[in-house]
Amino acid sequence: MRIATWNINSVRTRVDRAVAFLERNDIDVLAMQETKCSDDKFPYSAFEAVGYEVAHVGYHQWNGVALISRVGLEGVKDHFPNQPGFDKDPAKPQNREARAVGATCNGVEVWSLYVPNGREIADRHYDYKLEFLWRLGEVADKQKAQVLCGDFNIAPTDKDVWERAFFEGKTHVTEPERAAFQRVVEFGLTQVKHEEPYSYFDYKGMRFQRGEGMLIDFQLASPQLPARAWVDLEERAGEKASDHAPVIADYDLSALLIDEVR
To answer: Which GO terms label this protein's molecular function in UniProt (predicted)?
Structure first.
């Protein structure tokens, strides 16, 4: 099964690119983040017309996540257990944001996740980010075949950023963030590896052209799902592209079939 994860940075702006991407890469399941629209404005028909089902969680023009599948969408969940909420005013209700959607696709539980950015280390959003990741660790289940996909907004090691000194005093590279990411992995998942070093390139400063990026988009999978992965840098190089490149992985589901026979 071929799964892709992509922070599309506005699905309505790039819906034609998304459909072309699915067809060009023969994608079975696409986990999409930052759709930036509410459910009633999501372009469902564009994906349904080429044979995909859609599960989308969007409350307004910010955040937004989707699962787009041609191999089934069973048991759709619009959040994970104990998913925290946020409001910049601590006195107001901390409402849950559109940052997680999960479903079973061809026997595998797949999640599309958009981890909070954190903004600045002294910001309440940074604490929200850590709590979100802490709770996300509870989603991992060693008894299930799972793939947790998305924009994690964390570079887990120094080699996952083009220049460590550039990020000094900033989010995405702090030890608490990295420890929280590692905690999710240690619940029984494996970070799917690929040769390409980065998945995100800021629009500013000609970062993509200079090869100055970050690796913050991941697929974390159950060990019983061997995978081969790559980053679609050609998509990032296209005209009016998202600042994130899709991360694609091919999963071997033969172990699941053997368990079914047993």
So the answer is: double-stranded DNA 3'-5' DNA exonuclease activity; metal ion binding
- Summarised one tens digit per residue, pLDDT across range 109-164 is 999 999 999 999 999 999 999 999 999 988 888 788 999 999 999 999 999 999 99
CATH, residue 173: 3.60.10.10
Does the annotation flag 95 for ligand binding?
no
Range of 131's domain? 2-260
Active site includes 244? yes
- pLDDT tens by residue, 162-210: 999 999 999 999 999 999 999 999 988 999 999 999 999 999 999 999 9
Which listed residue (28, 52, 56, 114) is catalytic? 114
117 assigned binding-site residue: no
Q: Binding residue per annotation — 138?
A: no
Contact of 14 with 242, CB cutoff 8 Å: yes
Confidence band of 260 (pLDDT split at 50, 70, 90)? low
Choosing from 28, 151, 217, 232, the catalytic residue is 151
Number of compact structural domains in the chain = 1
Distance CA 47, CA 57 (A): 16
- The residue annotated as part of the active site, out of 128, 232, 244, 251, is 244
Residue in 188, 253, 242 with CA at minimum distance from that of residue 216: 242
Which percentage of the chain shows pLDDT scores above 90? 92
CA separation, residue 24 to residues 37, 70, 139, 157, 199 (Å): 25, 15, 32, 32, 19
State yes or no: is 151 an active-site residue.
yes
Q: Is 151 annotated to bind ligand? A: yes
